[in-house]
Amino acid sequence: MTPPLAVLLSAVVLVIAGLHAYWGLGGCWPATSAERLAKAVVGRTSIRHMPSPGACFLVAAMLAGVAAWPLFAAGLVPEPWPRRLTVLAGIGVAAVFVGRGLAGYTSAWRRRFSEEPFARLDRLVYSPLCLLLGAGYTALLFADRIP
């Protein structure tokens, strides 16, 4: 089960990284304009523009690194560092995904990110996806410890 889960997690996060890189290049899919895209994927109250290309590329690069982690964790790619660093990174990544997923259901988050359609998409897609990714990363962390 570990290798298929690792490949699935890696692929999903890599697609998300690719979307961020595409947005950094000025793309606006799945919306029809940069303003509509910002309202759908950023969601801050009264947002009118996407973050800078540099910010989009930074997120894309970070996500690409996060996409590589499951491949190291499952032993599909050799680790060029001590195993404990892979485990520590996995704990951090899992915590960020779970934290982001849970945050989407708090009233403070809802007040700060209330722009539609983001608020609806966050409840239905973004937060649940983050929780699933967090669960997947956590499962990989414990996969070699469960008989």
Topology:
Layout: H1 2-24, H2 34-41, H3 53-73, H4 83-103, H5 107-112, H6 118-143
Helix pairs in contact: 1-3, 1-6, 3-4, 4-6
Describe the protein:
This protein is mainly alpha-helical and 147 residues long. It has one domain (2-143). It contains 6 helices and no strands. It has helices spanning 2-24, 34-41, 53-73, 83-103, 107-112, 118-143. Helix 1 packs antiparallel against helix 3 (53-73), helix 1 packs antiparallel against helix 6 (118-143) and helix 3 packs across helix 4 (83-103). The model has no long low-confidence stretch (mean pLDDT 94).
- Alpha carbon gyration radius: 16 Å
Number of beta strands: 0
Determine the structural class based on helices, strands and strand pairing.
Answer: mainly alpha
Low-pLDDT segments = none
How many distinct helices?
A: 6
Q: What is the overall silhouette?
A: globular
Question: What share of the residues does DSSP label as strand, in percent?
Answer: under 5%
Helix proportion of residues, in percent?
over 70%
Count of individual domains: 1
Straight-line N-to-C gap: 12 Å
Order of helices and strands: HHHHHH
Q: Could you give a short account of the major beta sheet? A: none
Which features characterize this protein?
single chain, 147 residues, mainly alpha, 6 helices, globular
In summary, what is this structure?
By secondary structure, the chain is mostly helical.
